[in-house]
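We treat protein structure as text, and this decision shapes the records that our systems exchange. Such a record has a labelled line for the sequence and another for the backbone structure tokens. The record that follows is passed on verbatim for readers who wish to inspect the format:
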Amino acid sequence: MSLHGAIAAAVTPMRDGGRALDGDAFGPLVGFLAVGGIDGLLAMGTTGEGVLLSLAERRWAAERFVEARPPGFQVAVHCGAQTTHETAALAAHAQEIEADAVAVIAPPYYPLDDEELFLHLRSAASACAPLPFYVYEFAARSGYPIPVAVIERLRSDVTNLRGLKVSDRPWPAVAPYLLEGLDLFVGSEPIVLEGLEAGATGAVSGLATAFPETVAKLVHDRDPAAHERVVALREGLTGIPFHAAMKTVLGARGVPVREDVRAPLRGLTEPERATVLALRAR
């Protein structure tokens, strides 16, 4: 089944100052998201610190998320890595543990050309087939965009390409990826309503990991108040470490997720923590 609706880009629970994963927190986090009205999660994407984890940690975390999912709740695994071999290995593992989907971002640092991107994405999609495969487009993180021509070529060559998560902004940067026959999930919450009105399928949201009810209303009900809330949250969090902020809010909401993040990411200063908690309380 393809992904649908409101998907949380989940944080990855950690302990020991971010040096280890916190296995006890995965289940409560997934339960919190499901109760909050979210349809599923994307594990170890940008919000999940995936590229900072070892391959063994990524496999272990994917297993914890999958085993914690309640009936009807979807778990997609981000498998993007620096090399094609590692990406394909993670994608194959996601298929083995019966995740619901795989997403892959273009590798950062080296600006791959069209042929390199196509071969990389094809290897990942083939490794997880028949699991639904999603291209994760985020030029600000990869350092370059994935050309639409590469996506069109990919879907003519593999059978399991179902769509894209596009975290670019503003909407005119996302619109070219609204391709007939492929689902589009918007990654930037302030443009979700604009995307849904244009034909997007749903959203994959970092804010949803700590504010699931708001993002569920935004996607499911197209609620103007929810739109105003996500805009205010994004503006209020500008300049504050996002990963630590989301984990701080989760802890304040009773979810046993520590503030710990993996270095070189950092935790919050006391003034930042006060700002985050004040935003949460509004």
